[in-house]
Amino acid sequence: METTAKLYSLTFKSLKTYIFALFLIVGNILFPQICHLTPYGGPTLLPIYFFTLIAGYKYGLRVGLLTALLSPIANNLLFGMPPTSILPLILIKSGLLAVTSALAAHYSKKISLGAIFFAVIGYQLIGTAIEWGILGNFYDAIQDFRIGVPGMLIQIFGGYTLLKAIAKI
Hints:
The protein is mainly α. The chain contains nine helices and two strands, in the order βαααααβαααα.
């Protein structure tokens, strides 16, 4: 399932980079607040990553990285979530998602369910390995695979749906 779309690779010199990043960061601030209304909403639904996927895939690496890094920091400063103790791990995984989603879009050149799947699984596998190396605890490192599968599915199918909806923008 693929859709031809306008995919961008914006530069840091472009005002559009910062405008798109701002809107996506706001999405990454509001969506987690909604998800945290349910028990274990954050760890289960992984909402802090959703708009980072959209940012990297649709608007390129720079918008993706701005969204990936500023969203968790803003959430932490405003709401204390993610907790400061795990913020570095969230930043690593978020940054990885910006990279994998931008690469997936670059190589597929289309909105592709398969490319989005590989972007999500790619950042999760690499992020889990890094988390295991940092924490030294495999059980904790695979938390996203233990309880975050619904969030990964939201990223894959919800991301695909949203990207298709904004394909021509």
